[in-house]
Amino acid sequence: MAHGISDPDCRKEYFDSRKELNAHLDQLAQWIKESQHFIVFTGAGISTSTGIPDFRSAMDTVLPTGPGAWELRDNKKFRPNSANAIDDMQKAIPSPSHMALVELQRRGILKCVISQNCDGLHLRSGMNVEHLAELHGNMNLEICQKCQARYLRDFDTDMDHPRHYTGRQCSKTDCRGRLKDSLIHFGEDLPADELKKAFDHAEKADVCLVLGSSLTVTPASDVPRRVAKRKQKLIIGNLQRTPLYTRATLNIHAFSDVIMKGVMKRLDIPIPPYILRRRVHITCQSNNQTQKSTVLIEGRDPDNSELPFSLFQSIDMSIGKKKKHVLTEEPFTFEISDKNIQSIAIQLHFFGHYNEIPFTLDYINVKTIPPEEQFYLFYNPMSGIWRKTIDETDLPI
């Protein structure tokens, strides 16, 4: 069973003075500029500014989210009503730290994020999965126990089942294996492929920045430890001291957002706003015998067109002025007569974690629906507007 931090010196929160912080950020930015293989290791502390509480912050923490989950349990306390904590992690908007890491990865500066987080915010922020190792799983990802196929969902896949089964099946007709959530509970083995990716990058890293981790959970914490053992630069950004405090090249006691905002300013790289990214794949197949067309609408991962992504709570279709035909479960397929010459409106309804409005696809008639169509939908939660584009880099400002 997991517990809070027992060492009083490691439970205490420290803050660098302004002079110390500026000097530390100057040095960190310079090391990043000079690095050949820069990696970042993240823990729960990177997400506290989004309203997601961490696990090991002390009872007297300054964090708005309040004490850590394990600390509360150890002290037989409940989270105070005054805590600024969200009740649904799906509604969390990626922090400036998340978005800074995305921009560094896009520019080729950041080679990999090794994450202990299971909140899904790294993927949601736009981090390319090729440059991400999620050691403790992802609440939005489930995996087929039989063929290992992966499925992203825009909802929490954790059913709190002791064997991780979600109640869904693999959509491959030649498999139909049972799906499991990908979360790693304490005492369970970490995913071998993610752990290998993490250590491969630790072997190459010349600069490793830790953001918001107590570094008390193994084998995940062995990743930054490996960087220190190779005598490469290990920078730990955390309010509390960690077991690697004396092994670190530099310790920065500040909030993750303060660190990343300061670093990005010194690198002269703007932090992009968070944009919700969706990829939609539509096929329309005509059957000459039935003289009907079957329209299939699917979500796909924005960075991997082969990875299914459940994006829609429901989809409805109306032909001309006829009553809407509503589907609420995958697969979302509609049959339309090839003889129909009326206009077609297909409305996509999302899960609405960020109050996304529905998006409507309008076609003159069934003949104007392409045999295969793939496009992106980008949504800015601040403006509440969708943008449709075939250019994955055409993000709204």
Describe this structure in words.
The chain is an alpha/beta fold and 397 residues long. The protein folds into 2 domains: 8-139 and 183-267, Rossmann fold (3-Layer(aba) Sandwich), CATH 3.40.50.1220; 276-389, Immunoglobulin-like, CATH 2.60.40. 19% of the residues lie in helices and 29% in strands. The chain contains 8 helices and 20 strands. The protein has helices spanning 8-11, 18-34, 69-74, 96-106, 121-125, 192-204, 222-229, 256-267; strands spanning 38-42, 110-115, 132-134, 141-144, 150-153, 165-169, 178-181, 207-211, 233-237, 250-252, 276-287, 292-301, 304-310, 312-319, 325-327, 332-337, 344-350, 359-363, 372-380, 385-389. The strands form 3 sheets. Strands 4, 5, 6, 7, 11, 12, 13, 16, 19 and 20 form a 10-stranded mixed β-sheet that branches. Strands 3-2-1-8-9-10 form a 6-stranded parallel β-sheet, with helices on both faces. A 4-stranded antiparallel β-sheet has the order 15-14-17-18, with no helix packed on it. The longest helix is centred in the first third of the chain and has 17 residues, at 18-34.
